[in-house]
Please model this.
Amino acid sequence: MKPSRLEAFSDGVFAVAITLLVFNVKVPDVASGNLGKSLGHEWPSYLAYLISFLSIGICWVNHHSIFDRVAMADRELLFANLGLLLGIVAIPFSTSLAATWINQGSNAKWAITVYCGIWVYTSAMYILIIRHLMEHEHLSANVTGVTLKSLLRKGYIGITIYILATIVAAFYPVAAFIMCFTLVFYYVIGVQQETV
Model:
């Protein structure tokens, strides 16, 4: 299969997932009182939206960085990509869960653990795709720019941080959420330092 069909389908899924995030941002129900104060209480929704929007955007950029190097997609690559998209479409749910429960004691631990766990899964699927392409060189196109080896290294760094964040979430959910936010900056800076 030509990779352009795979990319077009994937782009649609990314677009839907990133759009669904905004539905998790709630408008405060203020019958009478201070709207500004009520908006301030919704900070978890805004932070979760920002982290997840940027993270999905980074996933989309990385997806294109990978598939710019693909000349042909085999059946295994198609299924690995579907596995990746499964994680991407779960992000709006986990974002809503995290935003709703981050301030709720022991429930916050579960919510942020699920959020981080989805990112562990998504990172693992990226690594699977990259390794598949590295092991099946006949699928790759000769292009310049970011190498698959470089993308794989960043993938291992990402999954390591997400695994640590998942563990930290069981004890300090807000700290785990901040770890996910920090990883966004790592990927944004990394993208700017290399040609995509």
